[in-house]
């Protein structure tokens, strides 16, 4: 008799997970054997799970991760030099709490972007804000933002997100504006937030890509000195998959 009014009130209060659980319970004859405490526990558990799932979905939408990658699917068998112990430690996320960075380097196709996205997905699951950006597209977007009034807002977003993933770094030398923008981003993040950067180039070549020695020293000081390192090698995983197919 009270079923429909109760459902209406639960939905009106935004307790949709609890409402669904309540509807399932009243439709199940065995639920009559549950105590009041058990009923309440089941309703609260469903509401908590529903809210957690919605928050995770929102974080993943904001993150815009390039790959649907999760740590549970990481391939440690491929001969690419991935240190399993190190990566398992990174999955734990303590380095994000410590505001450290991570550099993932290696040739094309060895899974740099995929691994970065897997760590990003885990960070989302751990209730951290994440944002994925391809570096060439990011610099193009920043250049446009200088002219259309979005620059300050975009810089705030890039500076405040808890984990920023900068993918495909070093594909081309930086111009003066890109150097300035990158330094501003890293200055806002240094010691406060964490950054993952992936590159086909070894860290030793990054100074030359940045160009201006003064900017290069400042950028690398903020990016590399507190960075964990994953140096991958081997053949392209994509090429190997095509051979198998």
UniProtKB/TrEMBL annotation:
Keywords: ATP-binding, Nucleotide-binding. GO terms for molecular function: ATP binding. Residues 98-231 form the AAA+ ATPase domain. Pfam families: IstB_IS21 (PF01695). CDD domains: AAA. InterPro entries: AAA+_ATPase (IPR003593), DNAC/IstB-like (IPR028350), IstB (IPR047661), IstB_ATP-bd (IPR002611), P-loop_NTPase (IPR027417). Belongs to the IS21/IS1162 putative ATP-binding protein family. This is Putative insertion sequence ATP-binding protein y4pL. It comes from Rhizobium mesoamericanum STM3625.
